[in-house]
Amino acid sequence: MVLLRSYVSGGWHTATDEGAPLHDAATGEEVARVSSTGVDFAGALDYGRRVGGPALRELTFHQRAALLKALASHLREHREELYAVSARTGATLGDSKFDVDGGIGVLFSYASKGKRELPNDTVYLDGAVEPLSKGGTFVAQHIAAPLHGVAIQINAFNFPVWGPLEKFAPAFLAGVPSLIKPASQTAYLTAKLVELIIESGILPEGSLQFIAGSVGDLLDHVTAQDLVSFTGSASTAQKLRAHPAVVRNSVRFNAEADSLNCSILAPDARPSTPEFDLFVKQLVTEMTVKAGQKCTAIRRAFVPAEMLDDVAEAASARLAKVVVGNPTAEGVRMGALASLEQREEVRRSLKALLDAGSVVYGDPEHVDVVGADESTGAFLSPVLLKADPQRSEPHEVEAFGPVSTLMPYTSIEQVIEFAARGGGSLAGSIVTGDPEFARTIVLGVAPYHGRLLVLDADDAKESTGHGSPMPQLVHGGPGRAGGGEEMGGIRGVLHHMQRTAVQASPKVLGTVTGRWVEGAPRVEGDHPFRKSLAELRVGDSVVAGPRTVTRADIDHFAEFTGDTFYAHTDEAAAAANPLFGGIVAHGYLVVSFAAGLFVSPEPGPVLANYGLENLRFLTPVKEGDALTVTLTAKQITPRIDQEYGEVRWDADVVNQTGDSVAKYDVLTLVSKEQP
To answer: If you count Cβ atoms within 10 Å of the first and of the last residue's Cβ in the chain, which end, N or C, has fewer?
Structure first.
């Protein structure tokens, strides 16, 4: 007997009882037993807060991102071990790759985003500095800091690897430790995942804990600094959300729940078109991948009434080629449901759906099985239904398996109404070659969906499909879908942080945020371009100029660049322009002159100028204006894997009266040490 262990408070814990049996979904054999008896849940949360949280908060975003990348690389080397265990959940190799590789891909994605989109610092700046006074001595900025709690994740059975990792990655990048509680049916696969992670030694101690079995009194001990993220049924989500400690402490609660996702076939996508074939192929794929046990799977397929029979016939022909059986058997395309109990739950839902429709393809009670025994494995035939969309059942009952329902519609207004009857969905798709139809549907159903895919012949080859959540995009949905939101790139990181408005003087605000703020002191001395990252400090600056702009400069720039826009070359037309009232210098001439003023030409620690950001031309520059530029080190970001880093400089170009004519950020790469 294998009894799954929990990993809490820095060590492995074995339950003090025999636990409940977990079975191979295809063969019925016992795989393991699961129990959390004896786990000190309060102690586990306390350990995460005391040990894991401080260890993570000491690291910068870039350091956390590097650890995520290292972990992803480690798990990628052990994919075969995870695939082997995944087969026991009823998953085919394709299903297992969807789960395992998808989860590892989320780690890689967040590692990349953390390095590219977050600072090499421990504080995140949300938005621009807000001036609060006329004199500029009182300013404010929103910052985001990691919560001092634990991100508790309670997961569903259908994605034992992807589910934990897609919640873990943004929490870890934010600096918040995680506690993973998987659904028991497939907990043995998540246990293997956690074992690989812990044994790698990559993560700081306390940043990841794992509970095998029930949650016990875990939620009794949550505080206002903790978070709870749940994936599962809407009814369970409601119970957890209403837990007294969750309510009393205003604990952040994120739910991904039941979702009657839809796909809409447009009238232009007739049987002879590529879009018709794409719709049918996608429908069958969503019914059979993971045996339809996907929270994003297509449950409702809306089809123009005149094409209903065509779609039913084409989908049935494809479904007839799907071989069901033991996922390890050759030729099998769809494995088993997660458990016999899950199969019976799907059959109960099917009975409710059949009250409103009829079977187009499949037999809810029998399926021919390859390489296994139908009586002991949790096998179910793909079942395609046809129903009246005016009935409530197809919009209220979700059969969480290889089941979908075809429904006709007669107008664009009607199909938008039908889509909304799902009460809120995680994902929807529109299959059409008509951009105007797509626009009308997207705008009509967007309030009811977390994500929408528009599929056509142009994007089909590279599309990730209806049912594939992407780490760059939000995963969640309104209403019935739980009202939550996960991932979405850096948005998912910020869910684990507290946004705080900081009001202070420019000097103090700059010290808090690690960035120079306009109005804060500047330090003039040696040219800052002569300083390495080790020597450079935020606030180091240089003032250079003035340089007088001549008409010859303007004429030469126009001829040299080919930019002969009338405001630079035609006296009469420029004079008639209400913004200029005469010939003005090119904006990029101003920027070029500024660079010529502040640059230090000799070889040194500055390696390259790699861009300008936030460029604004504020005051027209005319012949005779004298330009002066002030360049100030605004932000310094060392790269942890390179011998250089990035420096963001504040550039302010003013004329002889002190009016700013241009403001922008200069981005350079600078050596960490003197060359």
So the answer is: N
The amino acid occupying position 493 is V
| Both structure tokens of 584 | 């003005």
What residues pair up with 649 in beta bridges, in sequence order?
633, 666
CB atoms within 10 A of CB 328: 16
Cα-based distances in Å from 217 to 37, 42, 53, 527:
11, 8, 22, 62
> What's the whole-number average pLDDT of the chain?
92
Q: Are 563 and 569 in contact (CB under 8 A)?
A: no
Q: Which helix (H) or strand (E) holds 286?
A: helix 274-288
Q: Which two tokens stand for residue 199?
A: 């044994």
Backbone angles phi, psi at 125, to 5 degrees: -95, 125
Beta strands in 36-187 (DSSP E): 124-131, 139-146, 151-154, 178-181
Taking the C-alpha atoms of residue 438 and residue 429, their distance in angstroms, rounded to an integer, is: 10
Number of neighbours of residue 377 by Cβ within 10 angstroms: 26
Q: Which two tokens stand for residue 605?
A: 């620690």
Q: Which two tokens stand for residue 77?
A: 């080397």
CA dist 538 and 523 (Å) reads 9
The confidence score (pLDDT) of residue 602 equals 87
Using pLDDT thresholds of 50, 70 and 90, give the confidence band for residue 372: confident
Range 128-152 average pLDDT? 94
Share of the chain above pLDDT 90, in %: 75
514: exposed, middle or buried (Cβ count in 10 Å: 0-12, 13-18, 19+): middle
Q: Which amino acid is at 59?
A: L
Separation of CA 342 from chain center:
29
> Which phi-psi region, left, alpha or beta, contains residue 63 (left: φ > 0; alpha: ψ -120 to 50)?
alpha
CA-based torsion, 451, 457, 463, 465: positive or negative: positive
| Strand partners for 11 | 8
- To the nearest 10 degrees (0 to 180), the angle between helices 551-561 and 587-598 is 110
In angstroms, rounded to a whole number, what is the distance separating the alpha carbons of residues 554 and 563?
10
Give the 3-state secondary structure of residue 124.
strand
3 state DSSP class of 162: helix
The pLDDT of residue 641 is 81
Q: How confident is the model at residue 1 (pLDDT cuts 50, 70, 90)?
A: low
Counting every residue, how long is the chain?
675
Burial track 156-168 (b if 16+ CB lie within 10 A, e otherwise): bbbbbbbbbbbbb
- The whole-number average pLDDT for the span 579-591 is 92
Asked about 256 being catalytic, the answer comes back as: yes
Residue keyed to tokens 């202070």: 504
Tokens of 87: 């087969």
Listed residue (333, 406, 409) closest to 369, CA to CA? 333
pLDDT average, residue stretch 64-80:
96
The residue annotated as part of the active site, out of 166, 262, 275, 295, is 295
Q: Which residues contact 572 (CB under 8 A, 6 or more apart)?
A: none
Cα-to-chain-centroid distance, residue 554: 48
Which one of 256, 286, 486, 646 is the catalytic residue?
A: 256
Distance, in Å, from the CA atom of 91 to the CA atom of 325, rounded to the nearest integer, reads 10
The pLDDT tens digits for 178-224 are 999 999 989 999 999 999 999 999 999 999 999 999 999 999 999 99
Q: Does 487 score more than 70 pLDDT?
A: yes
Q: What is the DSSP letter of 471?
A: T
